[in-house]
Amino acid sequence: MDKEQLRFTLFGCVAILFWSCLLASARVVTEQLGPVGGSAMLYSIAALLLVIFIGIPKPSLFSLRYLFLGGALFVCYEIFLTLSLGYSNNRSQAIEVSIVNYLWPALTVLFSVLGSSKRPSVFLYPAILLAFAGVAITVSGDQGFSVMKLAANISSNSLVYILSFTGAILWAIYCNLTRRQKSKHNAITLFFIATAIALWIKYAISDEPALIFTWESSFNLLITAFLMAGGYGLWNIAIIGGNMVFLATLSYFTPVFSAIFSSIILGVSLSQNFWSGVALVTMGSLICWYVTREAPSKSLAESEKSTS
User: Which residues form the EamA domain (predicted)?
Assistant: First the structure.
């Protein structure tokens, strides 16, 4: 790896690091400013940062189908994810919800295979089941897996689990749609602006109280927006000349990184049962990627995000 490729690869590593910190940081913002209002502020500032550092691409660079369908998928995913974090009963549940979100890599591979004429590997479906089993163990709580515990935990706040799981499905569809679009340009800035607008509309019709800013909440808001915009911006740079095989592989460990940083940022002690579930989610996603790795690595990595 030459110096230039190393530099681009490091940018990608930092992007993955940013995404790993993002979900916990977003939870803090929603605690301080409200689930909807805090999310609206977060995406507004992140969109502004993307406009400044990446710019706004011309809509004519994309097909109308991709702008509307891809944009709708992106906006719904981001809203579902942030609201699932914001509406969680507590910080421990927010971390659980974030792991449900990380089913999207396995689902992305599944939808890609279902949409192609190639015969999938015999290991693909067991790997997907492994990822789902990991989520089930994680969501079951600290005392080990059981169907009763899983059902009880989900029923305590079913909305956030439904939002997160639906978001994972939407993001997997979005990844496959983005890979197939003809334009090689990135519409992220446009989609961020659309997400911010949608959240402000929801805030306007909701009964959330007015936003009250403090020095602490303002600082956390800016840091989180920087992590969000910086992750996307650095990843866009990384895919130009980085080692995408390495970065694509590393990105599948994001659930582990995210759980570690979430535990630190949110001050939550995670049980051995939780870590076992996270390990299974990561292992299942890695196997899914490995058995379908004949797909061009760069193309895959360009369409995938590790955070959210």
Answer: 10-139, 160-287
